[in-house]
Amino acid sequence: MAGYIDVHCHLTGEEFDSVGGIEAVLDRAKANGVETVICSGFDLASSLIAKKLSEQYDEVYFCAGFHPSELDKYREGDLEEIRVLCSHEKCVAVGEIGLDYHFDDNPTKETQRELFYRQLKLADEVGLPVVLHSRDAAQETLEFLREHKEWLKKGGLMHCYSYSPEMTADFIALGLSFSFGGPSTFKNGKKTQECVQRIPARLILSETDCPYLTPVPYRGTFPNEPKNVKYVVDHMAELRNENLEELKNTIVQNAKKLFFKLK
Ligand code: NI
User: Fold this and answer.
1) For residues 205-229, b (16+ Cβ closer than 10 Å) or e, as one string?
2) What are the residue boundaries of the structural domains of the chain, listed by start?
3) Each residue of 25-66: pLDDT tens digit?
4) CB-proximal residues (5 Å) to ion ligand 1
């Protein structure tokens, strides 16, 4: 029987103190069949904590990088530290990186593009895939990635994919995979559900993006946890009319292929 995998979560904050701490969170994940979690950094500090968690717990791997909304914290030299983290045996990708034009007070588009450029280049230099965050910037992200396609040799993941079903073809042409989380279980998630149904099995992955975006049937509770990835995958199997065990197995294989350092 294949296990579940949460390919994108954030376990580095204090959100889990109220529910027994990280150890309890990981115990509950295990008890619910979750065998691997990839903890994503979003700045240097969180990337360093994620690395530490990966050294403490066998089932934890991590990504290192700067999220586009967190660039105010970026200091010259931070990317060199991210580069060092990338050589860690449990660092599976550069991430999460990308463009986020959702809030007016986000870092400027210019700043976001500059760091996106440098981190994409870094991923190529260290030979790792990228985990992409893109919000309200579909066309810009697509054009940017097309322009720098040569840096996507190790592939990448559109995490928590939220754009149109039609656009998936454009991202597939760039060699990217897709992961889905809580929003794919929401009643108002029709567009995302259509994506889940359409995407080829070899490109589909599962995540929680916790502590946010808790899936149905626990939607609205905080914090979300890796154990809940099971509700996402069970729902995906239903949407795709696929055997659950087969889908779980496919997702684990997809994850191992993309994040090739996973054991
Ligand atoms: Ni995230």
Assistant:
1) bbbbbbbebbbbeebeeebbbbbbb
2) 4-258
3) 999 999 999 999 999 999 999 999 999 999 999 999 999 999
4) 209
